[in-house]
Fold each of these.
Amino acid sequence: MNNKLKKITPFLILSIASIVYAIVIVIKERNLSWGIFVVVGLIVIGILLFGIDFGLKKWLNNYKKIFLTEIALALLVIIIYDYKFNRTKTLIIPTEFNESYVTIIYGVENSKDLSISALTWNKSIEIPKSGILLTSSDFNENLRETEIKMNSGIFLGSDETEKGFVRMTESEFQSNGRNYKFRTWKIQDGFCCMYTSEEVKKYKAELKTEFEKIKASR
C-alpha cells in the first residue's frame, strides 16, 4: 500500500473533520453564545484524536493493526455512549387515554416486576387505564430515556399527535408507615408541557389517595 495512504487512518480523518467543523461553525455563526462550548469541544476532541492516532502509529507501527484498533476504539465509544444515554423505556398507554398523568410507583409488594437489568437496552411497559402502574421493582431499576406511545403505535411528541409529555419532579409519599417513590410524566395537548410546584404537591396528595384505593381493592 502507498505510504501516503497508510498515514490516512480513521482517527486522523475524524480529527481533521472535527476541527474543520469547528471552524465552519465559527465562520457561519455570528453570535456563538452557548455554541462556543461546542466549538471548544470539537477542537479538544480533534486534538485528542490526533494525539491518540499519533501514539498508535508510534506504538503499533503496522497500518492494519492501527486501522483495526481505531475502528474497535470508535465502536467501543459508540457502544458506551449509547448504553449510558440511549437506553430507553417505552410506556404504552391506551389509545383513548384520558388521564393527565402517567405514574410508576416503585417497591409495591405483590406487584409485577419491571424486569430491567444492567443488560436491558429497551423495555416496553404497559400502563393501565388509570395511568398508575404499581411495581415491586426498586426505584433505581430504570432506563435513562423515556418514550410514551399509544396502543396504535403513535408516539407522544411526534407529528402524528398533538399530545406531548414531560417528566415531572420525582418524589415519594408515605402510606401505612412505608415510603413509596414514584416517577410521573405529565401529558398535555397543544403547547406542552409545564407544571408548578403546587401542581406537584396537589398531585402527590391525590396519588397517595388513589394508591391506597388500588391497594385496598386487591
Amino acid sequence: MTPFSLYPAFVRISYTTAYAPHTMTLPVLDWNPPSGGHPSGTFLCHDGSQEDAETMIDALVAQLAAVWLPTTNINEAIIYTMAAPVAPAIPQITYEIGVPGTNTNTGWAEAVQLTFTLRTDLFHKMKLVMLDVPSDNDFNKYTSEAAINVEFQQIVDELKADGNGWCGRDRGQPTTFVSMIFDLNDALRERYRLA
C-alpha cells in the first residue's frame, strides 16, 4: 500500500466562515454504498461494525459546531472512494449538512487555525485542522487531554471511538491525544490581507 494514501475512502467536509469557504479531509476505514435505511451508505468501524455514514458524520459535526462561531456554516460532506492507493478519488455521495456553529466566544477568529494531533495504533499521526475559530487569546500548546476544555475533549473522543471509522492516513485507529494548539495561519493572513 502507498504510505499515507487516502485509499480506500475519505470524507471531505465543506464549511463557510465569515471570511472564506474551507474544507477538511478525513480518512475513513472503508465505505459501503447506500442500502436499506442508509441513504449515504455505511462506514466500516474499528470494532468491525458498520455505522450509518450520515450518523457518523453528524456526530462529528455536532462536536465541531460547538467550536465554530454562529457565522460559520457546515455546508456538506462528500464521500470519496479510491480503487487503489494511487487511483483517482471518485466522489460517491454528497450529503447536505447545513449546520451553523454554536460558539458564542467573542475572541479573535479571523485566520486562526486550531489543530488537533492524535497518534494512531499504527504509530503515525492523524491531524484535524479547523480554520477561522476563536482562539480565546490562548496560543499555548496542550499535550494533555485532561487540560483541554470539554468541547475539545468531545472532538477527540469522537475521532477515537471504536464504533466510528475515522482513521489516520495509515488506516490506523486514533488512540492517543498528542496535542492541541491554536495558531495564526500565515497563508490565510495573506489571503485576508492581514499580513
Amino acid sequence: MLEDPRACSACGGAVDVMTIDKRLDDGQSMPTKIGACLRCGKWFNEAGLLELHRLMPRRDGEGGS
C-alpha cells in the first residue's frame, strides 16, 4: 500500500511509516499504518499518509554530468 517513501506536508522531510495493531471496541485488533516525519516529527494517521506526495528515489548517475 505505502511502499514508496512519502514527503512530509509540513517540511518536505522523509516520513517513516510503520504498521501497528489498533484495538477495536470489541477487543479485536487490526493492523493500521501511522507515520512520523524524520525531520520535524509531525505524525500522520493512515488517511493522512495517503495524501502525502511520494519522494522520488535518488539513483546513482542521475543529475549532473
